[in-house]
Design brief:
Shape: rod-shaped
Oligomer: single chain
Number of helices: 3
InterPro entries: FAM240
Strand content: under 5%
Protein name: Family with sequence similarity 240 member A
Organism: Nannospalax galili (Northern Israeli blind subterranean mole rat)
Length: 77
């Protein structure tokens, strides 16, 4: 009867080790994918374009809400 429990422990230990290795590999793959995706997005021009458009819109709104600022800019230039 004790031999059955010993076998089950060995079997469980091997299975647990295999499951652990499997999930470690899966996590490694996901980490690699996430890092490559972050790198790709970092190189993308989309973020830069969005910032430029945001600044343009903010400037237009500011000038629309405060027309005196436009006159000051034309007199300074």
């Amino acid at each position: 009867m004790n031999n059955q429990y010993a076998r089950r422990e060995v079997f469980c230990r091997n299975t647990c080790h295999e499951l652990k290795r499997f999930w470690e590999r899966e996590i490694g793959k996901q980490t690699c994918y996430r890092e490559s995706e972050e790198h790709r997005l970092g190189k993308s021009a989309l973020r830069k374009l969005r910032e430029e458009w945001k600044q343009r819109l903010e400037t237009k709104l500011r000038l629309r809400n405060n027309p005196d600022e436009m006159e000051k800019r034309t007199h300074v230039s």
